[in-house]
Amino acid sequence: MTRFQALLKPDSTSTPMAEQERASRQLPDVVRSSRLKWWTKKAAIPTHGKALLLVIAPYSHYDLALLDVLDAALARPRARKRLLLVPIYVADLQQYRTVEQLSEDIPTITYAPPQTPVAAVWEDGILSKSAWGKRGRDLVADALGLSSEDLNKRVITRVPKYTPPSGEKK
Amino acid sequence: MSKGRPITVINLGGEGEVPAVINQQRPAALSAGWGSCATGVTLEQLALQGNDFLICPNVHLPINDDSMDLVITNSVPVDIVSLGQPGVQSSEIRRILVAGGQWVHDGTVRYTKP
């Protein structure tokens, strides 16, 4: 299942910029058609139990692959019941024009995170943890009771690889 | 491409995921909170593993015109701004590529310089 990574499917008549902008435009609908939840406002955070917010970069295969892996995990009957206890909200980093806007949703983020996804966990309505990049994925795994090693492995194996022709490095 | 001279390859926004190439990172990679997206290791650790880095802004690469045989970009913003920071610039990629040089984005050849 690669509905999220398909957002970045290259088009011979397009450019990477146009594809990245298209991915950003289409992301909300794809999230809504998945088992994940589209982030609309902070009030959506439940006051009881855990909730997870993932701010993802629509230009990143790492982030889109993470959404694919999580959506697939939610589809598995054995894992689904446990994972469904933690709602997973998704937001688009490109919706935030400034760090201040991002801080309104995740107050612990006070400077531009150098990597994505930005992950935040609420417990009983209170923001408890946030992290970004690989640590963000580790936080996702921890919040959902998954193996971070397995989650990262599943994500990284889905990221496109390219090996240049062999030659002498400059 | 590269007739009688070393092949020159750069991975813009690279984190060492492509072996034996030069990786470019923005100065933000020098901040304490930076870690490789794939493995979380620091820039210093990546350098100790043998990866070469060029630290410079995306908007102007300190690289000569017509000097690179291959430019690689993976999972980076291209020609868009993210949280106020400009992404990789396709105009710079076109500038630094040699005639016949290629730009590979997310594993697919996206441009060959005439």
What characteristics describe this protein?
heterodimer, A: 170 residues, alpha/beta, five-stranded mixed beta sheet, 5 strands, B: 114 residues, six-stranded mixed beta sheet, two-stranded antiparallel ribbon, 2 helices, 8 strands
CA gyration radius of chain B, whole angstroms: 14 Å
Number of strands of chain B: 8
Distance between the termini of chain B: 11 Å
How would the global form of chain A be characterised?
A: globular
Task: Identify low-pLDDT runs of chain A.
Answer: none
Spatial sequence of strands, sheet with the most strands of chain B: 3-2-1-4-7-8
Query: Secondary-structure element sequence of chain B?
Result: EEHEEEEHEE
Name of the CATH superfamily of chain A? Glutaredoxin
Total DSSP helices of chain B: 2
Question: What's the overall average pLDDT of chain A, rounded?
Answer: 91
Q: Return the string of H and E elements of chain A.
A: HEEHHEHEEHH
Strand content of chain A: 15-25%
Please tell me the overall pLDDT of chain B.
92
Question: Could you list the spans of chain B in which at least 5 consecutive residues all have pLDDT below 50?
Answer: none
Number of helices of chain A: 6
By secondary-structure content and strand pairing, the structural class of chain B works out as mainly beta
Distance from N terminus to C terminus of chain A (CA atoms, Å) equals: 40 Å
Computed CA radius of gyration of chain A, to the nearest angstrom = 16 Å
Number of strands of chain A: 5
Most strands sheet of chain A: 5 strands, mixed
Explain what this protein looks like in three dimensions.
- The complex is a heterodimer of chains A (170) and B (114).
- Chain A is an alpha/beta fold and 170 residues long.
- Chain A has one domain: Glutaredoxin, CATH 3.40.30.
- Chain A has helices at residues 16-32, 61-75, 77-83, 99-105, 133-144, 148-158; strands spanning 37-38, 50-56, 88-92, 118-123, 126-132.
- The mean pLDDT of chain A is 91.
- A five-stranded mixed beta sheet of chain A has the order 1-3-2-4-5.
- Chain B has 114 residues and is mostly beta strands.
- Helix content of chain B is 11%, strand content 32%.
- In chain B, strands 3-2-1-4-7-8 form a six-stranded mixed beta sheet.
- Chain B is globular.
- Chain B starts with 8 loop residues before the first strand and ends with a strand.
- Classes of the chains: A alpha/beta (170), B mainly beta (114).
- Chain A binds chain B through residues 8, 10, 15-17, 20-21, 57, 59-63, 93-94, 96-99, 102, 112-116, 132-135, 138, 152, 156, 159-165, 167-170, and chain B through 2, 6-9, 17-22, 28-29, 31, 33-40, 52, 69-70, 72-80, 82-85, 87, 90, 104-108, 110.
